[in-house]
């Protein structure tokens, strides 16, 4: 009978090692996983691999029926219990993270789980000196101590916390995430109870590896769905940017300007047409570029736009540059829309139709600021979320591009009757 059980345990351990290796390989290959999910599963399957390996080594150590074998068995079991317990708290962390808790690292529920885990580790250490929970005799035979069930209480409590956490945060989890976490929370718990009641077969090892693989499978599919959804959103965002940047009335007015100059000043008309063509080319190229570009390149795009506007409005539009620095990168199509807003909804909305746009850069200790300032009529920034006009859609697009491409922010200050200042804040790397 013992040989059959040993054979079953050997198969369980071998399967666990295989799942651990396969899990690590998949995590390495899957590029669409977000950074924290990739780190989590890399650590998770590394721990599972170590957990199963220690269990397998422990099985082989049983063959050494000497005091030295007993010492080896004690050390291996302590390490195995320590590694396995880490997985329970990691699951608590991952549930909080996947459910969208941005402060999951300091979450009170997680701190409670950590406290219970520390208590479990203390119990393991105490056991090394007292044998209250389990011990090995001099012939390397494993025995459960009188208080063995108490040793399982902390782990069961953490697993129950995870179950309650899944229930309480179910509205923040996708259906796949819920299923993944429910299975992972319940299967190891059931396996642990089974192993406690029917000592011999390592059900906890089997339950943990199967549940971890199932969890990763569902989380990966969920992240894949989000990845493709994000790609669709990015494609839609590019279309919105295209519509926002190449607006019909701008095209119409620019072509009318060229038409007017053809009669009055053919040389200027040729220049204007060249500027217009270059402006459109840069716009189209920018739509396919998701990487920050040198500020000077973005500035040339802006200068092309302003040159076209100057052909139309002449001295009514004044442009000033105040650069403290230019040696940094900026996402494409973030500066030009702000300058366009300053001209169209700032300067040209004044009764006089004339004014000044200032483009300014400043470098600070950890970031760079690019400001676009106009002396237009201003507006109430509190209405930004309510206003669906093209200017405010453009601001939303800029915000999304700054955050997605460079981790940047957009700050808006405006006062009615005094003008507007819109500032791009970029990490200075």
In a nutshell, what does this entry contain?
The protein has helices at residues 2-29, 35-61, 67-98, 108-130, 148-168, 175-197, 203-245, 248-264, 266-287, 295-313, 335-346, 390-406, and strands at residues 134-136, 142-144, 293-294, 317-323, 329-330, 355-363, 367-374, 409-415, 419-427. The protein is an alpha+beta fold and 429 residues long. It has a five-stranded mixed beta sheet with strand order 4-6-7-9-8.
Fold and architecture overview:
The protein has twelve helices and nine strands. With 429 residues, the protein is α+β, with helices and mostly antiparallel strands. The protein has helices at 2-29, 35-61, 67-98, 108-130, 148-168, 175-197, 203-245, 248-264, 266-287, 295-313, 335-346, 390-406, and strands at residues 134-136, 142-144, 293-294, 317-323, 329-330, 355-363, 367-374, 409-415, 419-427. The strands form three sheets. A five-stranded mixed β-sheet has the order 4-6-7-9-8. Helix 1 (2-29) runs antiparallel to helix 2 (35-61) and helix 2 (35-61) runs antiparallel to helix 3. It has two domains: 2-228, Rhodopsin 7-helix transmembrane proteins (Rhopdopsin 7-helix transmembrane proteins); 246-427, 2-Layer Sandwich (Heat Shock Protein 90).
Q: What's the alpha carbon Rg, rounded to whole Å?
A: 32 Å
CATH architectural name of the largest domain? Up-down Bundle
Number of strands: 9
- The domain tally reads 2
**CATH fourth-tier homologous superfamily of the largest domain:** Rhodopsin 7-helix transmembrane proteins
Indicate the proportion of strand residues: 5-15%
Q: What oligomeric arrangement do these chains adopt?
A: single chain
Name of the level-1 CATH class of the largest domain:
Mainly Alpha
The CATH topology assignment of the largest domain is Rhopdopsin 7-helix transmembrane proteins
**Count of DSSP-assigned helices:** 12
Helix content: 55-70%
